[in-house]
Amino acid sequence: MIHHHGPVHHLEHFDLNELESHAIQHSINPRNLNPSTAQPLPSTHNGQPSKPQWQVRPPTADNIFKKPLALHSTSPMTGFLRDGYCHVPAGDFGNHAVAASVSKEFLDFTASRGNDLRSAGLTPGCKWCLCASRWKEAFLARKNDTDPVVPKVWLNATNEKALGKVELEELKKFAADKEE
Fold it and tell me: Please, what are the domains in the chain?
């Protein structure tokens, strides 16, 4: 049942299967579906109201500079939600917050610790949302501040939740971009 309160629509009851089916048809990752953020879109057929269509709002987040999170990569499609952003939703216990470009040395490093990102199709130069703790592990294992084992970081696409594991100055040492 949809209740109208001014211009905003609230959903009390909805069909999750219908939402998921719509998401798949329109290339929206079904894991992005959150009933509390779904809104019906006005739709008509020949001037008559038709079955509601659904709009799913993406999660919002800030980067490490407290500004809106920048898109990181859609090729390959990255992020815990596979939406191109380094969002860290409640279910992301790995904290995939660090927007990075992976190197051959990092791919070797993380594979040696049981997470072979090559099996996900990554090659040197790919942009990927990394677990903050794995990036920190590479940072601590570095020989110097130019060691390619530490992936370059796209600061504007790095989620502020990375700062729970990594210091801002550590990320800046390996920055691929500057604050926008």
Answer: 2-56 (no CATH), 59-180 (3.30.56.110)
